[in-house]
Design brief:
Number of strands: 0
Number of helices: 14
Structural class: mainly alpha
Length: 373
């Protein structure tokens, strides 16, 4: 058996088994005492760290300013993963209380900062300037950093619009997402997202960083010829990326709301920076994977996936923490999910999955047209 599988997927299977067991154990049928939860959380965190270490070494293809810096960043990501595992084993009240040891103002309901933005949607200069709060600057910085991660105008502008769709899709559940139409269009898409993307892409060129072509547009004369529609690896990679960045955007609000962390608390900035640096590693790794698939170069030099595993693990844990600690957090709506939202996502997600399975299992194997893309 060992010779047959050649240990190709053994480490991944073991990690998934450990990871799944930890997630299952974090939701006991009955409430447990604090001391037992603390011990269980520490044990689970150690177990996940050990399982994660079974994956391939955390090497990096980044060498500026130095590869040791990026290795250190990957370890910081592992520490954050362990912290999330530890928190997941606590009760909602205990998890919020533990954070108060870091910042004394935490551990109590957020009374300010979680308001809605659609109280007065009259299109006036006063209303526009009133809504240019800390989120306006945060959007601008966030999209500048996002451009440094993804480095593709097409994907970045698609993501910019997708963020607004996500806000519209979840505003019935988290009223903090409610905005006026001109807030979505003018303040978000035009004045912050687009400007931030432009600044970030200019920095990519000034710093002579590698620009990405996620869609496989180079060397084609029509969008129908894009590699995205022919290569299951590229299409699946793009879907993976969209899933991760969408969950990162949503949990940035849901997790902070569940743990009673105000929007202006430094923890939100620390999380953003951690995701930025970890995302640089994971998405560069993903890009090398999808852009070399089907080439002779790929056969000689396989692309590891350790940073993608790390990002995926953190994403899932943030989702579970948001779900578990959301009970009693407040600021959640009770309106039913609008029918257009159900239909829209109910069509888009199965369609994307169906097309991926078509490319993966029914279309003839993909062979790259050129050696380098």
């Amino acid at each position: 058996f060992t010779k047959m599988v050649e240990f190709k997927y053994v480490t991944q299977i073991v990690f998934l088994a450990v990871y799944g067991s930890v997630l299952y154990a974090a939701f006991p049928p009955e409430s447990q005492p604090l001391i037992r939860n603390l011990k269980s959380g520490l044990g689970a965190a150690f177990l996940v760290m050990i399982a994660q270490s079974m994956l391939k070494p955390y090497d990096t293809i980044f060498y500026r300013p130095h590869e040791s810096v990026w290795r250190a960043i990957s370890r910081i990501g592992l520490i954050y993963l362990a912290i999330l595992v530890f928190l997941l084993f606590q009760t909602p009240g205990d998890a919020r209380h533990l954070l108060s040891y870091l910042y004394p103002d935490l551990g109590k309901p957020v009374e300010r900062g979680m308001h809605t933005y659609d109280d007065n949607c009259e299109f006036t200069l006063q209303n526009i300037t009133d809504n240019m709060d800390h989120y306006f600057l945060a959007h601008l910085i966030n999209w500048t950093l996002a451009a440094l991660i993804l480095r593709d105008y097409y994907v970045l502008h698609f993501w910019s619009l997708l963020d607004e769709v996500l806000e519209l899709s979840w505003q019935h559940f988290l009223p903090h997402f409610r905005e006026c139409w001109w807030d979505h269009v003018l303040l978000d898409v035009i004045m912050t997202n687009t400007v931030g993307i432009f600044i970030g892409m200019q920095l990519v060129r000034i710093l002579k960083m590698k620009e990405y072509d996620w869609l496989g547009r180079k060397g084609t004369s029509s969008w129908m010829q894009w590699d995205l529609w022919l290569n299951h690896r590229r299409f699946g990679g793009l879907c993976y990326m969209i899933f991760v960045i969408s969950c990162n955007f949503l949990t940035g609000f849901f997790l902070m709301n569940a743990l009673w962390v105000p929007p202006k608390n430094p923890m939100t900035v620390y999380r953003l920076l951690l995701w930025f640096f970890a995302g640089c590693l994971a998405f560069r790794e993903l890009y090398e994977d999808v852009s070399t698939w089907g080439t002779p170069q790929r056969a000689k030099q396989p692309v590891p996936a350790q940073h993608r595993w790390l990002i995926w693990s953190i994403t899932v844990l943030e989702i579970f923490c948001s779900f578990k600690f959301g009970r009693g957090a407040g600021h959640y709506g009770t309106d039913p999910t609008p029918l257009p939202v159900v239909i829209g996502w109910g069509v888009a997600v199965p369609a994307a999955l169906s097309y991926y399975f078509y490319l993966r299992f029914f279309k003839k194997p993909y062979v790259a047209k050129t050696k380098n893309q």
